[in-house]
Design goal:
The chain has 493 residues and is mainly alpha-helical. The protein has helices at 9-20, 26-32, 37-45, 59-72, 76-88, 93-96, 99-112, 117-125, 128-133, 147-157, 171-180, 203-210, 239-247, 258-271, 280-292, 294-297, 300-307, 333-344, 366-373, 395-409, 432-443, 451-461, 470-485, 488-491; strands at 184-187, 192-195, 214-215, 227-228, 349-350, 356-357.
Length: 493
């Protein structure tokens, strides 16, 4: 047990850096090990969000642009948060069909990734990629579209049910909220979102038919009168902001903030691992909310900070971490790929056609490897985002991970797009045990190996080696890197 004043040590520092970034280099672990949990969390979260927007003339190039940014960023936690919000506010290019809107949304996620969550939701309300993806642009008073109203509650703020399994809203709430979002479109002449007064559902026209604009008569702790979302601002474009204000007042069956619990749970499981069932999960969630004040301030930076000092976050940090009783979390495909490239300092080769490929093995494009692993950036499988944990792992996606590891290890040469062990470790080592220790230290899993696993890697190397011999180095040392990258310890937190 510990708190924000607990000193990390090397093992917990490595765990913190792996979960909040893309791998953990030895120098980074050494810098964080003497820090307390609180000091380390402050150092990681006190960054100014960048205004970066993926560049390129098509979605492929913008996808590569974002991947390159993740590999070279000095603020990896920022990009881990952007990935989280990309999954949370899932939006797919397959329907949007506008790569500039997708890039603009990516920058919006970055700018809001650790800010005020209520402001974040209000910004997403008017994001053109989201408005196209969930049909806000097709929500008219004569032809209501309920898609965004439903997902705003189900996926973005409340969840279908609360922690105790009680419903958070009903169909009538969806109907009413859809009225608030009617009338929005895109002004192509001015290249911006536009409110069309003629297409908005006003009570003066439809009040008798559809009733007053009231939500949560039966849910959320508002009482049978519910809440009229036209008050106090009246009807018009401001309704979509007033709806969000009401959502953030919603209380679950325990009388707690539904939004705060919903988002805290999801971030705890993203940075940590799956929570236990109710009511044990509520105990963990509520203590983090209490310390962070998230249910009052909606400050995402403070919320993430309190997650990173909590005992729950460090439950998987013991060594070795793969006992049956130890909670585990599967590394996302993009995390695996970016961590590999960062730790091995491999910069895939680019060409004039926008490809970014590994110069070894099958010479595959990095986005192609990721697609085979089950994750295409800017293309989540649905509005629900990706399936986490076991959803990342099956026979096909595991083979894709192993193929990527193999091809990176086969990128042999002296250029930046090759695996160059000479810049990662001492090639003067000769003993198999020392070589195994050096390689597993590079990828950050040395402390996680069992004695039998370490011995198996030593047996693969055989007797003493001369790593300065190119043939030995290419055959044995590069092969060892491939094996280590394929080990479960590198794919699980």
């Amino acid at each position: 047990m510990g708190d924000e004043n607990t000193v990390l040590g090397a093992l917990h520092a490595r765990h913190l850096l792996r979960r909040t970034g893309f791998g953990a280099r030895k120098s980074e672990v050494e810098a964080f090990a003497p820090l307390t949990r609180g000091a380390a969390a402050d150092r990681l979260t006190n960054f100014k969000p960048a205004k970066f927007r993926p560049a390129g003339r098509d979605i492929w190039r913008r996808r590569v642009s974002w991947l390159k940014y993740m590999v070279r960023t000095r603020v990896p936690l920022q990009e881990k948060l952007v990935l989280f919000w990309h999954d949370h506010f899932a939006t797919g290019y397959d329907k949007v069909q506008n790569h500039q809107w997708m890039a603009d949304q990516n920058r919006l996620l970055r700018l809001h990734c650790k800010g005020n969550f209520k402001d974040f939701v209000k910004a997403i309300n008017l994001d053109p990629a989201m408005m196209e993806y969930l049909d806000t642009f097709r929500n008219f008073k004569e032809q209501p579209n309920e898609n965004y109203a439903r997902e705003l509650m189900e996926l973005f703020t409340l969840g279908v049910t609360d922690l105790a399994g009680q419903p958070n809203y009903d169909q009538q709430d969806i109907v009413q909220i859809s009225r608030a979002f009617s009338g929005w479109g895109w002004d192509w002449s001015r290249n911006r979102v536009r409110f069309n007064d003629w297409a908005h559902d006003y009570m003066s026209e439809y009040g008798a038919e559809r009733g007053p604009k009231v939500i949560f008569r039966n849910r959320g702790g508002f009482g049978p009168a519910g809440r009229d979302f036209t008050q106090p601002g009246g009807e018009g474009p401001q309704e979509i902001s007033q709806v969000v204000d009401i959502l953030f007042e919603h209380r679950d069956s325990d009388g707690k903030s539904t939004v705060a619990r919903f988002i805290t749970k999801k971030l705890l499981e993203y940075f940590g691992h799956p929570l236990p069932p109710y009511p044990d999960n509520a105990t963990i969630i509520d203590r983090v909310i209490l310390r962070s004040g998230f249910d009052v301030t909606w400050d995402l930076r403070r919320l993430v900070r309190e997650i990173l000092v909590d005992d729950f976050f460090y439950e998987t940090a013991s060594a070795p971490p793969f006992a049956s009783s130890t909670p585990k979390s599967v590394v996302w495909p993009v995390d695996f790929v970016v961590s590999t490239l960062r730790l091995l300092r491999v910069n895939p080769r680019s060409d004039k056609w926008g490809n970014w490929y590994i110069e070894g093995g099958q010479y595959g494009n990095v986005p192609g490897y990721l697609a085979d692993m089950g994750q295409i950036l800017f293309e989540p499988p649905s509005v629900f985002g990706w399936d986490w944990e076991e959803g990342w792992i099956n026979s096909a996606t595991l083979l894709a991970r192993y193929a990527f590891a193999r091809d990176v290890a086969m990128a042999r040469g002296t250029k930046a797009y090759h695996l160059r062990p000479q810049v990662l470790m001492n090639l003067g080592l000769t003993a198999p045990g020392d070589i195994v220790d050096a390689v597993t230290e590079v990828v950050g899993i040395r402390d996680y190996l069992t004695a039998n696993e370490r011995q198996a890697l030593m047996d693969y190397l055989g007797g003493p080696l001369d790593l300065n011999d190119p043939d030995v180095r290419y055959r044995k040392l590069h092969g060892l890197f491939a094996l280590v990258l394929q080990m479960p310890q590198f794919h699980l937190h």
